[in-house]
Specification:
Distance between the termini of chain A: 66 Å
Distance between the termini of chain B: 7 Å
Shape of chain B: elongated
Oligomer: heterodimer
Number of helices of chain A: 17
Order of helices and strands of chain B: HHHHEEEEHHHHHHHHHH
Shape of chain A: globular
Order of helices and strands of chain A: HHHHHEEHHHHHHHHHHHH
Structural class of chain B: mainly alpha
Strand order of the largest sheet of chain A: 1-2
Helix content of chain A: over 70%
Number of helices of chain B: 14
Radius of gyration of chain A: 24 Å
Number of strands of chain A: 2
Largest interface: A-B, 46 and 51 residues
Largest sheet of chain A: 2 strands, antiparallel
Radius of gyration of chain B: 25 Å
Structural class of chain A: mainly alpha
Strand content of chain B: under 5%
Helix content of chain B: 55-70%
Chain lengths: 385, 344
């Protein structure tokens, strides 16, 4: 049977039309942000430059794509419709009369839907892993920079040890199917996921230790919420069955956190060493504040500018790392719609078909570009102050 | 200065020792050993024979004993038949000794590759040569282009050239190798047909036709980063007093840039270029796999995929050495280029 095609113009219009929830959300959010940009602090200042607007636009575009993925994509990302195998962009699926906007891949899946669903995987794992890496890096970097001496030597040596590993070798060693049979990923997850809990407990303790009424509430919330998520992620024993992570994804997650926290550590350590010579730190020391109070409530807030910029860049870098993992077929399931895996599958067949390769590559590139533009514009704005 | 370098070399050796221990631990995990035994024996070998293969080839000795053997501080033992007491070589394909001998990394013996059925040295060093060639061309393309972009952009901060070039370099840092590789292959190999999408034939001899794509793919990711660092350094230099003095005494803009600014602006990029090597190593792995070029990265992936213990250890030793030695060069070189910095 001959497959029917729609014209290139109709493909463009159709794709733009499929993204309608994203456009609506974008107009609402961008419009509101632009109108009230004077009151929104650092975020509002982003709207002063073209680069900043472009960065916010691209990041929000992918964020809303991930949120509305099920509405946008016409097909299930894993569904295979045999007649659509290797069809070119714009092919009409005979049964439902829906269109394969970017064609079908070698397993007859819709490239467009896979690209849209791929954004979900990236936008969940990359920011979350970056968040955990920030927690680990901050919790270890602050004391290393503040105390110096032995703690600094030991922690810096460990950080340099991890940084000396080429990332790809680290992933080949840590993200293999075999390692799931050993307790290593779970032990590492148990260690890394402990950091946020410790971080928040110390944060609240140092601030409110003389005000038990607040302290106990905050500590209680931290421990209950943290313990709940911890049990769900590390032991997969969430009593309410809400927090759940696939063992494969846990493994990737842990490896990515492991690879990127030494970088955060180094930045935090450097910033701490710089800031601890300031007068307000000396004043806090004279007041008799405890070291952890000074680190968390005097130094950390003043280091936030470079850290926010770094976090933006790091989410982009983590996206690239996830793509690398997908490209080498490590960790993620072979049929997973994430961009790296899609690029791997498509790049093997570039000689015959190029259309399955382009959507995931352009998606990944544009998302990382958006984050980099955002970081660049944030850096410029924070330098102005 | 001398004691600084000596101390740094001490740290490097300690780091390498720790890292190889970690790698050694990870490749010797039970599932990995099972995988190795299965790939090295006939198909459908029963479990007890897999176990005896592991015992025979010395994989069941104490962990630290085996690490010591690999390092060369403990003797390596040949296979001994318990019934006859006759000794045979562990791996016949790489001339393992029949007497217990000290033969490890310290003696220059990197061990035996189970995947390629040869010694690690015979496999690893030609691959490193091939990758060295690739790296040479990448640096030859990347460094001049990125310095030029950085200088042009930083020369007049805020101008249109600056903005265009800055966005271009941000875009290039957002393009990892597997993305740019696919895009370049689509454009230059599939669509225009100018270049070859595979560099497999480059092992016999490199030509413009088969080597350009890997080189530009690898270069493009680094260009943006180095260009941005050069720009930042150039912008800073251009605001200095001596530049204003030179300008005010009537020198032309171009001669101020070339004679006064460049020298001082190029110190920081030197460090950055040196610190790019760890990233280049990861890039090399992706590019070599993508374009099927038989170099270091390709060897590393093969070794990791087949759990080839000695080869993987050799690869990690080499890559860690490269990372650490470039860090040392960048530190020493920075102090050397910038007389204001004194190394304590």
């Amino acid at each position: 049977m001959q497959t029917e095609y729609i014209s290139a113009f109709d493909v463009v219009i159709g794709v733009l039309w499929r993204f309608w929830p994203v456009w609506v959300a974008l107009i609402l959010v961008m419009g509101a942000s632009f109108t009230y940009r004077r009151r929104l602090g650092l975020y509002g200042q982003l709207f002063d430059s073209g680069v900043g607007i472009a960065g916010v636009f691209i990041c929000l575009f992918w964020l809303f794509t991930a949120v509305f993925a099920s509405t946008i994509s016409p097909f299930d990302p894993l569904a295979q419709i045999p007649v659509m195998k290797d069809t070119l962009p714009g092919a009409i699926e005979p049964a439902s009369k829906l269109v394969y906007y970017f064609g079908g891949d070698k397993l007859a899946r819709d490239v467009f839907s896979r690209m849209v669903y791929g954004s979900q995987i990236v936008l969940i794992i990359a920011p979350a892993a970056t968040g955990f890496a920030l927690m680990v890096g901050i919790t270890l970097g602050l004391p290393a920079g503040y105390y110096g001496g032995k703690i600094d030597t030991v922690l810096s040596f460990l950080a340099n040890l991890v940084l000396a590993f080429p990332v790809i070798l680290l992933f080949y060693l840590l993200v293999t199917p075999g390692i799931m049979d050993t307790p290593i990923p779970y032990a590492m997850a148990g260690l890394f996921f402990l950091f946020p809990i410790v971080f928040f407990c110390v944060l609240f303790w140092t601030r409110y230790k003389n005000r038990p009424d607040r302290l106990y509430i905050l500590l209680g919330i931290t421990l209950v919420l943290g313990g709940w998520i911890y049990a769900g992620l590390v032991f997969d024993k969430d009593p309410l069955k809400i927090v759940h992570i696939d063992p494969n994804q846990l493994n990737i997650f842990v490896a990515v956190v492991f690879a990127s926290s030494p970088g955060v550590f180094r930045i935090v350590r450097g910033l701490t060493m710089d800031i601890k010579t300031r007068d307000y730190v000396a004043a806090a020391q004279t007041r008799g504040e405890s070291p952890w109070y000074i680190m968390l409530w005097e130094i950390l807030p003043n280091a936030r500018g470079p850290l926010i910029v770094d976090a933006c860049l790091r989410i982009g870098y983590t996206t690239i790392l996830l793509g690398t993992l997908g490209y080498f077929g490590l960790g993620l399931a072979p049929e997973s719609p994430d961009w790296g895996t899609a690029i791997k599958d498509a790049s093997r067949l570039l000689r015959s078909f190029i259309h399955p390769a382009l959507p995931p590559t352009i998606a990944l590139m544009s998302f990382v570009l958006g984050l980099n533009l955002l970081a660049d514009s944030l850096r410029e704005q924070s330098m102005k102050d | 200065m001398f004691s600084f370098i000596a101390r740094r070399i001490g740290t490097i050796l300690l780091t390498m020792l720790c890292l190889t221990l970690v790698v050694f631990f990870l490749v010797n995990l039970e599932p990995n050993l099972k995988k190795l035994a299965i790939s090295q024996t006939e198909m459908h070998t029963p479990a007890d024979q897999l176990e005896s293969w592991l015992v025979n080839h010395g994989y069941r000795q104490n962990f630290f004993v085996r690490y010591g053997q690999w390092l060369g501080v403990l003797p390596k033992h040949p296979i001994t038949d318990p019934a006859t007491g006759k000794t045979t070589q562990r791996f016949t394909f790489c001339n393992d000794p029949v007497q217990p001998t000290f033969s490890g990394v310290l003696q220059g013996d990197f061990g035996c590759s189970t995947k390629f059925k040869t010694t690690v040295a015979a496999k690893l060093f030609p691959a490193l040569g091939a990758t060295g060639l690739l790296m040479f061309w990448v640096l030859a393309v990347m460094v001049p282009i990125s310095l030029l972009i950085g200088i042009l952009a930083g020369m007049r901060e805020g101008s249109r050239t600056d903005r265009v070039l800055s966005v271009a370099s941000i875009a290039s840092t957002a393009t990892p190798e597997y993305v740019s590789g696919v895009i370049f292959t689509v454009i230059f190999a599939s669509w225009l047909g100018w270049l070859n999408g595979s560099a497999a034939s480059a092992s016999q001899g490199i030509t413009f036709y088969n080597f350009t794509l890997p080189v530009i793919t690898l270069a493009i990711y680094g260009i943006g980063y180095i260009a941005r660092m050069t720009r930042a350094s150039m912008v800073e230099v251009m605001t200095q007093q001596y530049i204003r003095t030179a300008r005010l005494k009537g020198l032309s803009f171009s001669s101020v840039v070339i004679k006064h600014a460049l020298r001082n602006a190029l110190i920081a990029p030197f460090t950055v270029i040196m610190l790019q090597f760890p990233w280049l190593l990861t890039g090399v792995v992706i590019v070599e796999v993508m374009f099927r070029y038989q170099g270091f990265g390709y060897t590393l992936v093969e070794a990791a995929g087949n759990n080839d213990i000695d080869l993987l250890l050799g690869c990690s030793l080499v890559s860690v050495f490269i990372v650490l030695i470039t860090q040392l060069i960048s530190d020493v070189g920075y102090a050397f280029l910038n007389p204001r910095i004194r190394v304590q």
